[in-house]
Structures are given as structure tokens and as C-alpha cells.
Amino acid sequence: MGRGSRHSKNAGTMGCEGQTYNERRKLCFGTVQERLGAEAQKDFDACALSLRFAVDPVCTPEGVLYSREAILENILFQKKQIARALGAWKAQEEDKADKARQEDASKKEEILTNFHQQNHAAGKWEDVANPGEIVVTDAGAGATSVQTDFEKKQFEDMKAFWLPSKTPEADKVLAKPDTCPKCPQSGKKLRMKELVTVKFASAPKDLTGARYMCPVCKKALTNSTKIVVLKVSGDAICEGCYTKCVKPDGEYDGHRVNPKDVIKLNRGGTGFIGSGESVISKKSMPLGVGSGAGDIRGQSAGPTSAFGLRMGR
Length: 313
Fold this sequence. Notes:
The protein has 5 helices and 14 strands. It is an alpha+beta fold. Among the domains are: 20-35 and 282-313, no CATH class; 40-67 and 196-275, Herpes Virus-1 (2-Layer Sandwich). A 3-stranded antiparallel sheet has the order 3-2-6. Strands 10-9-13 form a 3-stranded antiparallel sheet. A hairpin with a 5-residue loop joins strand 2 (57-59) and strand 3 (65-67). The longest helix is centred in the first third of the chain and has 52 residues, at 68-119. Keywords: Nucleus.
């Protein structure tokens, strides 16, 4: 069956007519995948904020590497945002407390007014207005109109949304902000004192293509190397050397090393799935009625595509 006859048998909008796999890919229909290479991955010694070579590197308890200046600026910026959000939340709570006090005062005044009307009906109390009626005076005409309680309640219950006084308003309720800054990458709470200075051992010139090396085995550190950072000294060594040399004795360079003092540094991306990094990027591209890229038939049809289909303008 030819292309024209197949489409004529499945006439309809572009989201439901018969299309080949090549046509759907050409029109970006459905989910589009893209394989990422090593050039799209972060190196193990790069800052997670600036994505450049980390200067004066520090790491978080989760093993995220940052430049000291970049992460400190980020923490200070978060603290300023938290201070502003906390101030807005406190102002909101004060407004709520003021409204509650005003409501309590109005209720007490209403109770006193009702008590006076019930017990001093024959007397005169000029300080308390009669809640049973509201007097509205027209200064121009000199006329006075009285609104009863029923009319007042009827006016309050009236749902005339076109009147300015009856326009509904949604109160913005602010939640209490978290007072602790968070790690930009992991999203977990982060404090300045938790940052650990990382000391990378520089590789010699004869170690081609390597910037750093493991100070124990003298092997080059790459994106595929599993690296651990010792809190007590800040040295970055490969995980194999830690398991074989440091962990059995629990000591390194005169420092006592406990398992809780070891941070596994996040590995860099190598472009392979085995590295643990995401190497596939996905994007959903819905195509059909209402998407702006539908197939419009008739006089308002858009320009034809590579396969003869017409795209909406």
C-alpha cells in the first residue's frame, strides 16, 4: 500500500493517523532520546557549581566537590533568601495575631452591647450604637434610610462578584521557611563547618594526561577511579588503597581513621553507563491537537513537511 493511500485510510489529526517510525522521529513525536558522551559529563575534580577546575576544593558529607569560594557565596546567598522569607513569614504571623485580637475585641464588644440592650432597654446609652439598624444619611437630599439586620445579612450573603466589595480574594499563606542552607546538588542540609578541605596529590610530569594521583599507589586519578576523602587529613586516595592499606589498621599518616571519617567522592562521568552517571537525555514532545504543531487540513493548512504532511502555523 502506498504512502498516500495509507494516510487516506487513516485520515485524522496527526496524533492518531498512521505514521512510520521515521516520520514520528522526524516530527519529534513522543519521547526523544539523546545519547550523551564524555564531553557532556562533569570531571571528578570539577566544581559542581562552576563546572570548572575546582580551586581550593572542598567536599560535602555526600561527596560533592565544590570550589571554596563558589560554595561559600552560594551559602551566603541562600542565607539572605532565608532571612527575607523568614521576615515575610513573621510579618504574616503578626498580621494573623492582630486579626485574631481584633476579632476577640469585636466579639467582646458585641456581647456587652447585647447585654446592655437586654438589661437596659428603657435607658439610654449613647456610647454604644444599636446593632439592630444602620443609619445612612444622604447629605444632599437630607433623607435618612434605615437598614435592618435582615437586609444587612442579605447584603453580606449576596454573591455579586462584579462588585468591588464582593470580589473574592485568595489569601497567600506562607509556610515557615527552612533556616538551614542546602547543598545545591544533593538538596540536603549543609553547614559551613561540615565542608571538608580536599588535598589532591599532584601527578608528576611523566604521568601523561593526569593532573592528580593517589599518594599511596602513585596511580593517576581519572573519572573512572573510585576516590575517597579522609576527613582527618583531607587527603584524596583511591578506594582500593583505603580498603587494603588504611582500613585494616585504621590509621593513615599518623591520624586515627574511623569508617565514619571516610567520604566517598562523587565520580566523574566517562560516557559509559557503568560509571553510574546518567548518559541518556530524554524529552517528551507531545504532538497533536492543541500542541501548536498539529496537522491542520484545508485552507488554513501550514507548510508541508519532508514527508508531505502539513504542519500547523
